[in-house]
Amino acid sequence: MTTRPVASLEVYVSVTTVASRSIALGLCFLALSGLARPASRPAAPKPLVPAPLDFPKDAGDWNGPHFLQADKQGRLFLLRSSTLEVYPYGSQGQMGKPSLLKVNPVDRPAPRLRAAMDVQGDWVVREGHRVRLFRNGKEEAVGDLDWMLSGVGMLGGEPVVSVDPVRIRRGAPQPAEEPLILRWNGKTWNTLISEPLPKGTSDPWAVAVREERSVLLLGDSKRNLWVANANRYRIRQYSSAGRLRLTLQVGEGTVRRREDAARVQQAFEKKAKASGTVAQAASALPVIEGLAEGRDGRMYFLVRHSGEGSDFVLDRYDPVTGQLERAELRLKDPGVITMASGKNGLYFAAFSPQKGRWRLEWQDIDAASWKPVDQARVEELTEPES
């Protein structure tokens, strides 16, 4: 850290006459009286304030979550999960004529909990514990998973999924380490990234294991995969071959938990014991809610952080400077939320259509007061891949 000295006041007076001596004394008095007054505090930086976007009145009532995504050109699309309709989404919140994703018949349809779109407009949807892939608007069959499905994403035109370390199909060989990310190669699911169970745990069904390993996925324009832990500030970048390239971490990078976690667990155990069952209470709090690759080449992260009139901040990583920065964001908690990088700015959409959508223009983002994130660690691996 470089410390810069505070500039001192130097007064040089050349006295040649009584008149000049009086002038010099007057100037010194003014200068010293100015020093006696406390310096005015700099104005607090103005937070970024996303503009709310109205939901079209003729859209009707939507049930279930909807997902906002953007393609390579920054065009926005909104997936209505209950009907699998894809709506072009305008910069002012207007919706175009939808196209219907054509599905293959399936047994026992389930709730559609997550979805992601790649830069070409293909979609992957998590339906219960089933992965559904749509290319050019038509469903393409993918194989069943051996592991319990958690999240979905797209990488280089192929679906990737995060999984819990719980086997749902028998007969498959046991790997050396539990898989975290699987990638579909057109024929089968292959492990892209492995991760052992957290230290001190051996039960893959434990709630703490899921809270520790829960991640969000984003494939960028350079075919890198960004893996962000949902309940702790740890974001990693991997190559398309699964090689770790970068880690961003704030603080210890541990799971964030509610303050009354112990009391909640005790109450939960008491109720479970009365019913003759054994159960664990979830106590993790969300940290990372959204990832987006900016039009400026930076990566943007929507981070939960309570502040004055807001429940979020906006962080960004600049690969040129290697710095993780933060700007204040005035946005209240709408529940689960998605973030997309559009042509005109960053867009946010609550899972529930009734809870809102917002736009944050690029010019406002560029003009914001960005400061280094406290306790941030940036670890970049520069070794060439073998």
Helix fraction bin = 10-25%
**Helix count from the secondary structure assignment:** 4
- Tell me, what's the shape? globular
In whole angstroms, how far apart are the ends? 36 Å
How much of the polypeptide forms β-strand, as a percent range?
Answer: 35-45%
Instruction: Name the poorly predicted regions.
Output: 1-36
Major β-sheet, in short?
5 strands, antiparallel
SSE run = HEEEEEEEEEEEEEHEEEEHEEEEEEEHEE
Would you tell me the structural class of the helices and strands? mainly beta
- Would you report the number of β strands? 26
Radius of gyration: 26 Å
Strand line-up across the major sheet? 14-15-16-17-26
Give the key terms:
386 residues, mainly beta, five-stranded antiparallel sheet, 4 helices, 12% helix, disordered N terminus
Brief write-up:
This protein has 386 residues and is mostly beta strands. Helices cover 12% and strands 38% of the residues.
